[in-house]
Write a structure and sequence with these properties.
Layout lengths: L2 H4 L6 E5 L6 H12 L2 E4 H14 L7 H10 L2 E4 L8 E4 L2 E2 L1 H4 L2 H10 L3 H12 L7 E5 L2 H5 L5 E6 L2 H14 L6 H17 L12 E4 L5 H15 L1
Parallel strand pairs: 1-6, 1-7, 2-6, 7-8
Antiparallel strand pairs: 3-4, 4-5
Helix pairs in contact: 2-11, 3-6, 4-7, 9-10
This protein binds cytidine-5'-monophosphate.
The site of cytidine-5'-monophosphate has 14 residues, from helix 3, helix 6 and helix 10.
């Protein structure tokens, strides 16, 4: 067995970071499924904190109040054995569509700039690391949360391609969508995520850069599994 993995065989971690729409959610879920590993959707945690703050009509810059929400978040991820999204229960009630809205995504990226909120979610995220392994999806999985991960991927795609994907997704759900507005929202959110002072969206040290602009999901998944197999 390769030495790099052997030293930390206990609970290997693959981190997959990148901007929204790069396909990292689907890719991460498929990889976790194929390896039979656990899966962390860290963006969902930020979205849940934002949802509670929105429900309480808090200003999204109120760091202490929002960090308290993050610390006390009563959430359960009901994982199933397929590649479907986990059912997320907030205080015992399912919240799936609410946290996936553009409004909640934008609010999530606002609360995510607050250092106390990130700190409050840190241990909660690390607790997802369990046997036989973890695939962690987010923005700072390889740089901050699991800096010693065995394999780190940074999955990117052009903003135009990501806006197109989101547009298609919304249309398929029968929802209204405007491509130009989506592109602008993506660019604003990207700028906020990439330029914040705490845990900005940048490739972690040692991350392998993968561009999904012209690659299908299956190709990206196969490429990452190939990288993993080189380490084992
Ligand atoms: O990945 P997703 O789009 O669900 O994430 C929503 C927002 O949460 C992102 O735009 C980002 O600002 C924030 N986030 C983060 N760190 C993570 C995951 C998500 O800052 N690890």
């Amino acid at each position: 067995m390769n030495k790099r993995v052997d030293e930390s065989v206990v609970m290997p971690v693959i981190t997959i970071d990148g901007p929204s729409g790069s396909g990292k959610g689907t890719v991460s879920r498929l990889i976790a499924h194929q390896l039979g590993w656990h899966f962390l959707d860290s963006g969902a945690l930020y979205r849940l904190v934002a949802l509670v703050a929105l429900r309480r009509q808090l200003e999204l810059s109120k760091e202490a109040e929002i960090a308290l929400i993050a610390r006390e978040l009563d959430v359960e991820f009901k994982v199933n054995s397929s590649v479907e999204e986990a059912r997320i229960l907030l205080e015992g009630t399912p919240v799936r569509d609410e946290i996936r809205s553009e409004q909640c995504g934008n609010a999530a990226s606002k609360v995510a700039v607050l250092p106390a909120v990130r700190e409050a979610l840190l241990q909660r995220q690390r607790d997802f690391r369990r046997l036989p392994g973890l695939v962690a999806d987010g923005r700072d999985m390889g740089s901050v949360v699991f800096p010693r991960a065995e394999l780190k991927i940074f999955l990117d795609a052009s903003a135009e391609e990501r806006a197109q994907r989101r547009y298609k997704q919304l249309k398929e759900k029968g929802m209204n969508a405007n491509l130009a507005a989506l592109l602008e929202e993506i660019q604003v959110r990207d700028a906020r995520d990439r330029n914040r002072s705490v845990a900005p969206l940048v490739p972690a040290d040692g991350a392998i850069l993968v561009d999904s602009t012209t690659q299908g999901i299956d190709e990206v998944v196969a490429g990452i599994l190939e990288e993993w197999s080189k380490l084992t």
